[in-house]
Write a structure and sequence with these properties.
alpha+beta, globular
Length: about 240
């Protein structure tokens, strides 16, 4: 089975599975619907191509939390307008982001589908982003393809957190994994609204998806012992 490993990292990310009106929340890790959105954009699918997008729900999905990051709250002011174009009222919207987080996503599926997905990821039609248009993917987004099942692939992949974070958390022994429930034989279960029915702006809808949570041992690689003039100040290198 071919599994595609992708790295989601950057100053900010946002994955809203429970956002309403003026409050735009973010989950603590990338949702399956968000990653399918990235794949759909890479494949050149439009928002109203429900049948083609729904087919991507069949992909096996797991995400490893390598660096959880912190929640950042931002706010914007916005205007609602009357029919004549005059301002009706001004209101504040709260928007939440993950700051300095790093995740590894593992996806797999049928051979033909994975070939199509991998080709699209390497040469995207539309620009994919990490939850918001202002949050582009980093250059190391594509890690590798491996001939392993998703959970095994995540278990065997070295820790992808930033070096400064690894140095600061040298005693960390476990990493959290959230995966399709049928990929894990044990672990705590939860239901999340991530099963895509439609991305259409007129009828955007999601169903529930069973998820299991577990943890795996960290596979660490020796960090290069180089002189770091910022280490005394807990600077990031």
């Amino acid at each position: 089975m071919t599994t595609l490993l992708l790295k989601l990292a950057g100053p900010l990310q946002s994955y809203g599975t429970d956002s309403r009106f003026e409050t735009r929340q973010t989950g603590r890790y990338p949702s399956k619907s968000a990653v399918i959105g990235m794949i759909s954009a890479s494949m050149g699918l439009k928002r109203d191509q429900d049948k083609e997008i729904q087919a991507l729900n069949q992909l096996d999905f797991a995400v490893r939390v390598d660096q959880p990051g912190k929640i950042l709250r931002d706010f914007h002011t916005a205007h609602s307008l009357k029919k004549d174009g005059k301002v009706n009222r001004t209101y504040v919207t709260n928007r939440y982001y993950l700051e300095d987080a790093v995740f590894v996503v593992a996806i797999s599926g049928s051979e033909s589908l994975m070939q199509e997905v991998t080709s699209a990821i390497k040469s995207p039609y539309f620009q994919p982003f990490m939850g918001r248009r202002a949050l582009p993917l980093t250059s190391d987004f594509f890690i590798e393809e491996v001939e392993e099942k998703p959970i095994l692939a995540l278990t065997n992949l070295a820790w992808q957190a930033a070096k400064w974070y690894q140095k600061k958390n040298v005693n960390l022994s476990k990493l959290d994994i959230y995966a399709d429930a049928d990929l894990l034989s044990n672990g705590s279960s939860l239901m999340t609204r991530e099963h895509i029915v439609s991305f259409s702006q007129q009828k955007r809808r999601y169903g529930f998806r069973p998820v299991k949570h577990t943890s795996i041992a960290v596979r660490k690689e020796d960090l290069l012992q180089s002189h770091d003039i910022f280490s005394a100040l807990e600077g990031r290198s």
